Amino acid sequence: MEIKGKLAVVTGAAVGIGRAIAQRLAAAGASVVLADIDEAGGEETRALIGSGRFVRTDLRDDDAVAALMSCEPQILVNNAGGGPSLRPCFPDADVGRWTASLDLNLRAPMLATQLALEPMRRAGGGVVINMGSTAGLGFGPHVSPEYSAAKAALIRFTATLGVLRDSHQVRVNCVVPDWVATSRGLAEQAALPDPGPPLVPLETLTDAVVNFIEDDSLAGRVLLLDRGQPPRMLAGDPL
Ligand SMILES: NC(=O)c1ccc[n+]([C@@H]2O[C@H](COP(=O)([O-])OP(=O)(O)OC[C@H]3O[C@@H](n4cnc5c(N)ncnc54)[C@H](O)[C@@H]3O)[C@@H](O)[C@H]2O)c1
């Protein structure tokens, strides 16, 4: 699908990865709707881009998600997420705290995707991109079980939806980055005694998003962006 002239919703667009994706899509000619709970950051992204619209949205609120999605985008980037750095995590966090993480990292992207489908089908097609994390891969421990479980579910959710390409003309794909070279990420890495491999460049991530939108053959795919490694597709053709 061509990006130019399309309407794109990017969640979590006030900083970091979401901001970079929004800037990239706008540069490619999309009209961008920037959604975030952080009003100052969202407006700053809008000013940096010089166009688009910021919609203050708490993605844990179903009504707010519905209001956001009423703009009927052809591109939806479910980027907002996070939480492993916010301690305490499960099992020390109370139920309200860890379910809030599930709501942000899993429920919100599922709901936004559901609300996008019919308008995208009516418009002749669309693309949804979910932002996973390597925290959602494998079988090892993780400091935030709720974040890790939500990202694992988001990856599996994406793969199950490959079939929507035929039924709705909607392609749902997932990017799964390791630690990304946002300004926060680079500062945190610099403070480590052993910084390890280079962080995933923001451009590698935005390239992956653009490719998922432009390549009409990609649906139900999961792309791993590991530190110091070339991008690797984990999921093949949908079942
Ligand atoms: N940064 C990394 O190294 C990394 C690695 C793997 C995956 N990811 C994933 O990439 C995505 C973006 O990461 P980031 O590092 O840019 O995150 P970040 O924490 O810097 O930004 C997340 C954005 O989401 C917004 N947000 C938080 N709660 C919200 C809510 N309830 N409603 C609306 N907006 C809300 C924040 O205000 C912020 O602008 C997340 O899904 C994260 O899990 C990041």
Task: Walk me through the structure.
The protein has eight helices and eight strands, in the order βαβαβαβαβααβααββ. It has 239 residues and is α/β, with parallel strands linked by helices. It has a single domain (7-233), classed as Rossmann fold, CATH 3.40.50.720. It is globular. The site of nicotinamide-adenine-dinucleotide has 27 residues, from α1 and α7. Nicotinamide-adenine-dinucleotide binds next to α1 and α7.
Instruction: Tell me the β content.
Output: 15-25%
Task: Give the C-level CATH assignment.
Answer: Alpha Beta
Q: CATH architecture, please? A: 3-Layer(aba) Sandwich
Please give the share of residues in helix: 40-55%
Shape: globular
Q: Roughly how many Å is the radius of gyration? A: 17 Å
Could you say what the CATH topology is called?
Rossmann fold
Structurally, the number of domains stands at 1
Major β-sheet strand ordering: 3-2-1-4-5-6-7-8
Task: Provide the low-confidence segments as ranges.
Answer: none
Structural class category: alpha/beta
Please, what is the average pLDDT?
Answer: 96
What ligands can be seen in this structure? nicotinamide-adenine-dinucleotide
